[in-house]
Write a structure and sequence with these properties.
The protein is mainly alpha-helical. The chain has one domain: Up-down Bundle (AhpD-like). Helices cover 75% and strands 0% of the residues. The chain contains 7 helices and no strands. Helix 2 packs antiparallel against helix 3 and helix 4 runs parallel beside helix 6. The longest helix is centred in the last third of the chain and has 17 residues. The chain is globular and about 45 Å long.
Length: 130
C-alpha cells in the first residue's frame, strides 16, 4: 500500500506541478517544520485526494482555483492556476471562472485573481490569452 500511494503522489504531483512557473511548493516549507508530517500531508492531498477519479484533474483544478480565488489566497492560487494549465484547463474558462467570483466574492477578489493569473500566463509565455 505504501509504495502504491507514494507512486500515485509522485505521478499526480508531476502532472500538476511539473512545469510552468518557478516557485517553491508549500511542501518544501512544511518539510522545514516536520518532514514526516509533510510527507503524510502530501500523500493525503496529492496521492489520495487529487488522484481520485470521480473528478478529472482539470475538474479538480477548476474547483480549486475558484475556491482559492474567492479566499484571496494568492500564493496557493498562483500554484493551482499553473497546475490547471498544466493539466489542460482552458485559459478562457479560467478567466470566466474568475469573473464568476464577482457575484460571490466581490470585485476585489476578481481583480486580485486576474492580476495573479496574468502574471502566471506571462511567466509561462502564454500572455495574452488567444
Amino acid at each position: 500500500m505504501s509504495d502504491d500511494i507514494n507512486k500515485r503522489t509522485q505521478e499526480t504531483a508531476s502532472k500538476l506541478f511539473g512545469k510552468g512557473i518557478k516557485m517553491d511548493p508549500p511542501f518544501l516549507m512544511w518539510r522545514q517544520f516536520d518532514k514526516e508530517l509533510a510527507n503524510e500531508l502530501s500523500r493525503h492531498i496529492t496521492g489520495n485526494l487529487y488522484s481520485r477519479t470521480v473528478l478529472t484533474l482539470p475538474e479538480r483544478q477548476y474547483a480549486a482555483i475558484a475556491m482559492l480565488a474567492a479566499l484571496r489566497a494568492k500564493e496557493e492560487f498562483k500554484l493551482h492556476v499553473n497546475a490547471a494549465l498544466n493539466v489542460g484547463c482552458d485559459p478562457r474558462k479560467i478567466a470566466e471562472i474568475i469573473f464568476q467570483l464577482s457575484t460571490y466574492a466581490g470585485m476585489p477578489a476578481v481583480n486580485d485573481a486576474l492580476d495573479v493569473y496574468r502574471e502566471v500566463l506571462k511567466e509561462r509565455g502564454e500572455w495574452p490569452i488567444k
